[in-house]
Protein backbone atom coordinates (compact mmCIF):
# COMPACT_ATOMS: atom_id res chain seq x y z
CA UNK A 1 0.00 0.00 0.00
CA UNK A 2 1.26 3.51 -0.81
CA UNK A 3 2.15 5.72 2.11
CA UNK A 4 1.75 9.40 2.88
CA UNK A 5 3.46 11.15 5.78
CA UNK A 6 1.35 13.70 7.64
CA UNK A 7 3.43 16.11 9.69
CA UNK A 8 1.39 16.03 12.87
CA UNK A 9 1.72 14.76 16.42
CA UNK A 10 -2.00 15.08 17.12
CA UNK A 11 -3.46 11.58 17.57
CA UNK A 12 -7.01 12.79 16.88
CA UNK A 13 -6.00 14.21 13.51
CA UNK A 14 -4.00 11.08 12.67
CA UNK A 15 -7.00 8.85 13.29
CA UNK A 16 -9.20 10.96 11.00
CA UNK A 17 -6.58 11.20 8.24
CA UNK A 18 -6.05 7.42 8.47
CA UNK A 19 -9.72 6.73 7.95
CA UNK A 20 -10.18 9.26 5.17
CA UNK A 21 -7.02 8.26 3.24
CA UNK A 22 -7.92 4.58 3.49
CA UNK A 23 -10.62 5.44 0.93
CA UNK A 24 -7.82 6.25 -1.52
CA UNK A 25 -5.87 3.11 -0.52
CA UNK A 26 -3.19 5.23 1.10
CA UNK A 27 -1.60 4.35 4.43
CA UNK A 28 -0.97 7.36 6.68
CA UNK A 29 2.23 7.73 8.70
CA UNK A 30 2.53 10.51 11.25
CA UNK A 31 5.29 12.02 13.36
CA UNK A 32 4.13 9.66 16.13
CA UNK A 33 5.43 6.70 14.04
CA UNK A 34 9.04 7.81 13.71
CA UNK A 35 11.69 6.07 15.81
CA UNK A 36 13.83 9.17 16.04
CA UNK A 37 12.14 11.85 18.11
CA UNK A 38 11.07 14.83 16.04
CA UNK A 39 11.24 18.13 17.90
CA UNK A 40 8.24 20.45 17.93
CA UNK A 41 8.04 22.60 14.82
CA UNK A 42 7.58 26.27 15.71
CA UNK A 43 4.23 27.37 14.27
CA UNK A 44 4.94 31.09 13.98
CA UNK A 45 2.92 31.85 10.85
CA UNK A 46 0.10 34.41 10.79
CA UNK A 47 -2.51 32.11 9.26
CA UNK A 48 -3.59 28.46 9.20
CA UNK A 49 -2.15 28.25 5.69
CA UNK A 50 1.27 29.59 6.70
CA UNK A 51 1.50 27.23 9.66
CA UNK A 52 0.47 24.21 7.59
CA UNK A 53 3.16 25.10 5.03
CA UNK A 54 5.79 25.52 7.78
CA UNK A 55 5.02 22.04 9.18
CA UNK A 56 4.84 20.29 5.79
CA UNK A 57 8.03 21.88 4.44
CA UNK A 58 10.03 21.21 7.62
CA UNK A 59 9.38 17.48 7.41
CA UNK A 60 9.60 17.22 3.60
CA UNK A 61 13.00 18.93 3.79
CA UNK A 62 14.22 16.67 6.59
CA UNK A 63 13.25 13.36 4.96
CA UNK A 64 13.21 14.39 1.28
CA UNK A 65 9.75 12.92 0.71
CA UNK A 66 6.32 14.43 -0.05
CA UNK A 67 4.58 15.46 3.16
CA UNK A 68 1.13 16.81 4.03
CA UNK A 69 0.41 18.86 7.14
CA UNK A 70 -2.73 20.15 8.82
CA UNK A 71 -3.09 23.37 10.72
CA UNK A 72 -6.54 23.78 12.13
CA UNK A 73 -8.60 25.47 14.80
CA UNK A 74 -11.83 27.07 15.89
CA UNK A 75 -12.88 30.60 14.90
CA UNK A 76 -15.59 32.17 17.09
CA UNK A 77 -17.29 35.28 15.69
CA UNK A 78 -18.21 36.78 19.09
CA UNK A 79 -14.51 36.55 20.05
CA UNK A 80 -13.31 38.28 16.88
CA UNK A 81 -12.12 34.97 15.39
CA UNK A 82 -10.32 33.72 18.53
CA UNK A 83 -8.92 31.22 19.37
CA UNK A 84 -8.13 30.81 15.64
CA UNK A 85 -4.52 29.87 14.93
CA UNK A 86 -3.91 29.84 18.70
CA UNK A 87 -6.54 27.13 19.32
CA UNK A 88 -4.13 24.44 20.55
CA UNK A 89 -2.58 26.67 23.22
CA UNK A 90 -5.60 28.84 24.06
CA UNK A 91 -5.55 28.01 27.78
CA UNK A 92 -1.78 27.51 28.06
CA UNK A 93 1.33 25.85 26.70
CA UNK A 94 0.24 22.36 27.83
CA UNK A 95 -2.27 22.16 24.92
CA UNK A 96 -5.06 20.78 27.13
CA UNK A 97 -8.32 20.18 25.21
CA UNK A 98 -10.49 20.30 28.35
CA UNK A 99 -8.99 23.57 29.62
CA UNK A 100 -9.25 25.08 26.14
CA UNK A 101 -12.95 24.38 25.75
CA UNK A 102 -13.69 25.52 29.31
CA UNK A 103 -11.97 28.81 28.54
CA UNK A 104 -14.16 29.26 25.45
CA UNK A 105 -17.35 28.52 27.42
CA UNK A 106 -16.27 30.96 30.13
CA UNK A 107 -15.64 33.71 27.60
CA UNK A 108 -19.02 33.12 25.96
CA UNK A 109 -21.00 32.84 29.20
CA UNK A 110 -23.01 36.01 28.52
CA UNK A 111 -23.23 35.50 24.75
CA UNK A 112 -26.75 34.47 23.61
CA UNK A 113 -27.33 31.45 21.38
CA UNK A 114 -27.84 33.43 18.18
CA UNK A 115 -24.47 35.15 18.60
CA UNK A 116 -22.48 31.95 19.21
CA UNK A 117 -21.65 31.30 15.55
CA UNK A 118 -18.29 29.69 14.82
CA UNK A 119 -16.41 27.53 12.36
CA UNK A 120 -13.73 24.89 12.34
CA UNK A 121 -10.99 25.70 9.85
CA UNK A 122 -8.40 23.32 8.43
CA UNK A 123 -5.55 24.20 6.09
CA UNK A 124 -3.82 21.21 4.49
CA UNK A 125 -0.44 21.90 2.89
CA UNK A 126 1.42 19.50 0.60
CA UNK A 127 5.19 19.98 0.36
CA UNK A 128 7.24 18.06 -2.20
CA UNK A 129 11.05 18.12 -2.50
CA UNK A 130 12.00 20.17 -5.57
CA UNK A 131 8.42 21.23 -6.32
CA UNK A 132 6.28 24.11 -5.11
CA UNK A 133 4.14 23.68 -2.01
CA UNK A 134 0.40 24.13 -2.23
CA UNK A 135 -2.24 24.60 0.46
CA UNK A 136 -6.04 24.33 0.60
CA UNK A 137 -8.61 25.35 3.22
CA UNK A 138 -11.70 23.52 4.39
CA UNK A 139 -14.28 24.87 6.83
CA UNK A 140 -17.21 23.55 8.85
CA UNK A 141 -19.77 26.11 10.07
CA UNK A 142 -21.64 25.79 13.36
CA UNK A 143 -22.33 27.24 16.80
CA UNK A 144 -20.87 26.91 20.29
CA UNK A 145 -22.94 24.86 22.77
CA UNK A 146 -23.80 26.03 26.31
CA UNK A 147 -21.97 23.05 27.85
CA UNK A 148 -19.78 20.17 26.60
CA UNK A 149 -21.54 16.99 25.39
CA UNK A 150 -20.29 13.74 23.85
CA UNK A 151 -17.16 11.61 23.89
CA UNK A 152 -16.21 11.18 20.23
CA UNK A 153 -13.53 13.13 18.40
CA UNK A 154 -11.04 15.46 20.09
CA UNK A 155 -10.25 19.08 20.80
CA UNK A 156 -13.24 21.40 20.75
CA UNK A 157 -15.65 18.74 19.39
CA UNK A 158 -17.71 18.55 22.65
CA UNK A 159 -18.72 22.24 22.37
CA UNK A 160 -19.13 22.59 18.58
CA UNK A 161 -22.56 22.02 17.03
CA UNK A 162 -22.28 21.75 13.24
CA UNK A 163 -24.88 23.53 11.13
CA UNK A 164 -28.12 21.53 10.54
CA UNK A 165 -27.50 19.37 13.62
CA UNK A 166 -28.63 19.56 17.23
CA UNK A 167 -25.79 17.36 18.46
CA UNK A 168 -22.23 18.44 19.22
CA UNK A 169 -19.47 17.11 16.99
CA UNK A 170 -18.45 14.82 19.88
CA UNK A 171 -21.94 13.27 19.64
CA UNK A 172 -21.36 12.44 15.97
CA UNK A 173 -19.81 9.12 14.97
CA UNK A 174 -16.40 9.30 13.30
CA UNK A 175 -18.08 8.39 10.00
CA UNK A 176 -20.49 11.30 10.37
CA UNK A 177 -17.75 13.73 11.37
CA UNK A 178 -15.49 12.61 8.53
CA UNK A 179 -18.23 13.33 6.01
CA UNK A 180 -18.81 16.97 7.07
CA UNK A 181 -15.63 18.14 8.80
CA UNK A 182 -13.29 20.97 7.86
CA UNK A 183 -10.58 18.31 7.45
CA UNK A 184 -12.73 16.39 4.96
CA UNK A 185 -13.45 19.60 3.01
CA UNK A 186 -9.72 20.36 2.80
CA UNK A 187 -8.87 16.82 1.66
CA UNK A 188 -11.50 17.04 -1.07
CA UNK A 189 -9.65 20.09 -2.39
CA UNK A 190 -6.35 18.18 -2.67
CA UNK A 191 -8.03 15.13 -4.18
CA UNK A 192 -6.70 15.88 -7.65
CA UNK A 193 -3.12 15.75 -6.36
CA UNK A 194 -3.84 12.58 -4.39
CA UNK A 195 -5.17 10.83 -7.48
CA UNK A 196 -2.34 12.07 -9.68
CA UNK A 197 0.42 11.32 -7.19
CA UNK A 198 -0.67 7.90 -5.91
O1 LIG B 1 -11.61 18.36 14.18
C1 LIG B 1 -11.41 19.02 15.21
N1 LIG B 1 -12.22 18.91 16.27
C2 LIG B 1 -12.00 19.58 17.40
N2 LIG B 1 -10.96 20.41 17.60
C3 LIG B 1 -10.12 20.56 16.55
C4 LIG B 1 -10.31 19.90 15.33
N3 LIG B 1 -9.33 20.24 14.49
C5 LIG B 1 -8.55 21.08 15.15
N4 LIG B 1 -9.03 21.26 16.41
C6 LIG B 1 -8.40 22.05 17.47
C7 LIG B 1 -7.51 21.16 18.31
C8 LIG B 1 -6.37 22.06 18.65
O2 LIG B 1 -6.72 22.86 19.77
C9 LIG B 1 -6.24 22.96 17.44
C10 LIG B 1 -5.29 22.41 16.40
O3 LIG B 1 -4.00 22.97 16.58
P1 LIG B 1 -2.81 22.52 15.57
O4 LIG B 1 -1.59 23.31 15.86
O5 LIG B 1 -3.33 22.51 14.18
O6 LIG B 1 -2.56 20.99 15.97
P2 LIG B 1 -1.75 20.33 17.15
O7 LIG B 1 -0.80 21.31 17.75
O8 LIG B 1 -2.69 19.66 18.05
O9 LIG B 1 -0.94 19.19 16.38
P3 LIG B 1 0.11 19.39 15.15
O10 LIG B 1 0.47 20.85 15.08
O11 LIG B 1 1.27 18.51 15.46
O12 LIG B 1 -0.60 18.93 13.91
O13 LIG B 1 -7.55 23.03 16.88
MG1 LIG C 1 0.35 22.54 16.52
UniProtKB/TrEMBL annotation:
InterPro entries reported for this sequence: dITP/XTP_pyrophosphatase, ITPase-like_fam, RdgB/HAM1
Requisite cofactors: Mg(2+)
Keywords assigned: Hydrolase, Magnesium, Metal-binding, Nucleotide metabolism, Nucleotide-binding
Coiled coil: none
Catalytic activities: dITP + H2O = dIMP + diphosphate + H(+); XTP + H2O = XMP + diphosphate + H(+); ITP + H2O = IMP + diphosphate + H(+)
Residues annotated for Mg(2+) binding in this entry: 71
Pfam families xref list: Ham1p_like
Active-site annotation: 71
NCBIfam families in alphabetical order: PRK14822.1, RdgB/HAM1 family non-canonical purine NTP pyrophosphatase
Keyword Cell division in record: no
Cofactor-binding details, from the entry: Binds 1 Mg(2+) ion per subunit.
Taxonomic superkingdom: Bacteria
Binding of substrate, residues: 8-13, 72, 154-157, 177, 182-183
Quaternary data: Homodimer.
Family per record: Belongs to the HAM1 NTPase family.
Name recorded for this polypeptide: dITP/XTP pyrophosphatase
CDD domains recorded: HAM1
Lineage summary: Bacteria, Bacillati, Bacillota, Bacilli, Bacillales
Function: Pyrophosphatase that catalyzes the hydrolysis of nucleoside triphosphates to their monophosphate derivatives, with a high preference for the non-canonical purine nucleotides XTP (xanthosine triphosphate), dITP (deoxyinosine triphosphate) and ITP. Seems to function as a house-cleaning enzyme that removes non-canonical purine nucleotides from the nucleotide pool, thus preventing their incorporation into DNA/RNA and avoiding chromosomal lesions.
Documented EC number(s): 3.6.1.66
Protein's organism: Halobacillus campisalis
Catalytic EC class: hydrolase
Molecular function terms, GO-annotated: ITP diphosphatase activity
Amino acid sequence: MKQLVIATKNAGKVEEFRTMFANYNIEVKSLLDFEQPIGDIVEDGDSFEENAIIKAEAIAEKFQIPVAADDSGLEIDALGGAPGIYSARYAGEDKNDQKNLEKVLHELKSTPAEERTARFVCAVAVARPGLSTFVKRGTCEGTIAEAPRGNEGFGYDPIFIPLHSNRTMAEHSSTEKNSISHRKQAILKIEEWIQEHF
